[in-house]
Amino acid sequence: MADNPKEKDYSQRYYDFKSKSYKLDVNNPEDGQAGREMYKILSETPDGFKVSQSYAENGLFRITNDGHMEISAGSKAEADKIDIRISCIRGGISINADRGAILIKGKSLVFDIAGEFAVNAQSIQLGNDKTRKVNIEGYEANLQSEGGSLFGKNALSLTTFFKKILGLIPGLGALFG
To answer: Which domain holds residue 163?
Structure first.
């Protein structure tokens, strides 16, 4: 190692530059976003699209790509088994598409959650013209609304609905009228 603590030690660095489309950098002493990189593989297309794979000293494994990315598995695997598994042992998962949509397609979609399931959005739509049935089940179910419909296309507000039901019972509807 260098005598000066600020001086970087390049003695363990290995750099292989085969071409613009393949570079390998091992034990780079320069600090990156996540500390020193243990290794980094870089590639570039003739059109300038770059891809890299790296592993930093803080344990961050990173894949970056200027173009599109695809992960495909299971073409020869047993049917109806899990072909791609993502596990986080002590943390969570974040998927960001700040300028686009997140689309999930499948035969079915199952959420198996021990805690709370929250959907935070300005607008939520469940179903479309192909949806035949919507079930909401639970020990306790609450619905709160500032207005709008609840039952069908020409629905009544929940308050109006109960006033009409209570109006069917003589004398009871006048209490809420």
So the answer is: 148-177
